[in-house]
UniProtKB/TrEMBL annotation:
Molecular function as annotated in GO: glycosyltransferase activity
Name under which the protein is recorded: Glycosyl transferase family 1
Residue intervals of the Glycosyl transferase family domain: 216-382
GO biological process, one term: glucose metabolic process
Domain Trehalose synthase N-terminal: 41-183
Pfam family, one: TreT_GT1
Coiled coil: none
């Protein structure tokens, strides 16, 4: 990370207008109780992906709060990361074939890292499966070892899960992102929801001119109501279902649909999905299919802010960060009642849930024809995200997690 990038990171003080002074004070009070503790985070990459994105904010925040916090990554070669990629897919339930030698190589690289890494810290906070076997070092370093699981391991390939679990259960605690992502373990388990950063390029306030510039760049009519879904082109995000719902709405009123997203390099099906979507979209000039390159944060921000209704018609969903982002921007959301969306969209309170194409079309039409109601839902959605899914709440949860490792017995004996 160069100096400029470090300087560009917002300080906690900058969140005060959003979360208020008392929430910031609370963070300081909690952090003071940990000021004699050193924290070491370990994951497998400094850049790319949600885990690195969160750590890039968390580590400076914890240091700013007076807790000496470091971040290291394990080193591995292509072979190691091919194996961990397969682990990742298998933990998500994908069928993968493994040879014994792959498990052995995984352990060998973890061992090599444990010998070569500079370990110092009281709380060793290990993220995801790649460095999980570093726990073998627990008798030599650290007071508390925590394993943070950022992925959904609820329906894993049993062979890989049993292998990982043997190491996980040697930790003091495991932390999951949602109740339905977890597996029962013999150790303490914590729940820490994901979050978005309201000051990141994807979520910060941007000017009307910047929004219009993005709309113009993609040739979108500024006067026609916009229905938007931002998602990777994946069957599970059901872009075809969104088009069908849109066609129903458009019979009743003029409107346009934007389907924006990238194709994932690790998903061979995504090109096929995009092709099908384009074929349908070609027949209708009111459908805009935008293939976004990675790092299109400002564009996504602008499209979400320009939208009249944001849709997330997923068939299956993880947490659904696109929903969090849209709610934060005060948008009325129509989303399927699946996965983490249920934690975010409370039907007819913070948005509308749907269970079918017809249901989605009905909800979209209701919102487009009732601007006051849409506004009210959007305001509620914004408040819900502010209360539950901002990075400052994530930070507070981490502080409480760390404290709970030390204050547990005292509380029992009090
Ligand atoms: N996103 C992106 N580019 C795209 C599509 C999505 O940057 O082409 C972002 C989106 O704004 C959100 C995240 O990627 O922050 C997707 O997270 P989500 O939980 O909605 O779905 P996932 O893709 O992880 O299944």
């Amino acid at each position: 990370m160069n100096k400029e990038q470090q300087l560009a990171k917002p300080k906690l003080k900058e969140y005060e207008p959003i979360i208020g002074r008392s929430a910031l004070e609370e963070l300081k009070i909690l952090a003071d109780k940990l000021s004699n503790k050193k924290i070491l985070n370990i994951n497998s990459t400094y850049i790319g992906g949600g885990v690195a994105e969160i750590l890039a904010r968390m580590v400076p925040f914890l240091n700013e709060l007076g807790i000496e916090t470091k971040w290291s990554v394990i080193k591995g070669d292509n072979e190691f990361f091919n194996i961990t990629k397969k682990f990742h897919n298998a933990l998500h339930g994908k069928k993968e074939e493994f040879k014994d030698i792959e498990f052995e190589y995984f352990l060998e690289i973890n061992k090599k890292n444990s010998e070569e890494m500079d370990f110092s810290g009281d709380i060793i906070f290990i993220h995801d499966p790649q460095p999980v076997a570093l726990i073998k070092k627990r008798n030599e370093v650290g007071e508390k070892w925590l394993w943070r699981c950022h992925i959904d391991v609820s329906m894993p390939d049993e062979k890989v899960w049993n292998f990982i679990k043997e190491y996980v259960e040697k930790y003091d605690a495991a932390v999951f992102s949602a109740p339905n992502f977890a597996k029962m373990l013999q150790i303490r388990m914590f729940l820490v929801y994901p979050s978005i950063d309201p000051l990141s390029n994807k979520n910060k306030e941007i000017s009307k001119e910047s929004i219009n510039a993005v709309l113009d760049k993609y040739g979108i009519d500024r006067k026609k109501p916009i229905i938007l879904q931002v998602s990777r082109f994946d069957y599970l995000k059901d872009p075809i279902g969104v088009i069908k719902a849109f066609e129903m709405v458009r019979k009743a009123m003029p409107c346009q649909l934007i389907l924006a997203g990238g194709t994932a390099t690790d998903d061979p099906e995504s090109d096929k999905v995009l092709e099908e979507v384009r074929e349908l979209a070609d027949k209708n000039p009111d459908i805009h299919v935008l293939l976004l390159p990675p790092d299109s944060d400002i564009e996504i921000n602008a499209l979400q802010r320009a939208a009249d209704v944001v849709v997330q018609k997923s068939i299956k969903e993880g947490f659904g960060l696109t929903v969090t982002e849209a709610l934060w921007k005060g948008k009325p959301v129509v989303a399927s009642a699946v996965g983490g969306i249920l934690l975010q969209v409370k039907h007819k309170i913070t948005g509308m849930l749907c269970h079918s194409i017809e249901g989605a079309a009905y909800a979209i039409r209701t919102l487009l024809t009732n601007p006051e109601y849409s506004k009210w839902l959007g305001q509620n959605g914004h408040a819900h995200v502010k209360e539950n899914f901002l990075i400052t709440r994530h930070l507070k949860d981490y502080l409480l997690l760390f404290l709970s490792q030390y204050y547990r017995d005292e509380l029992i004996y009090l």
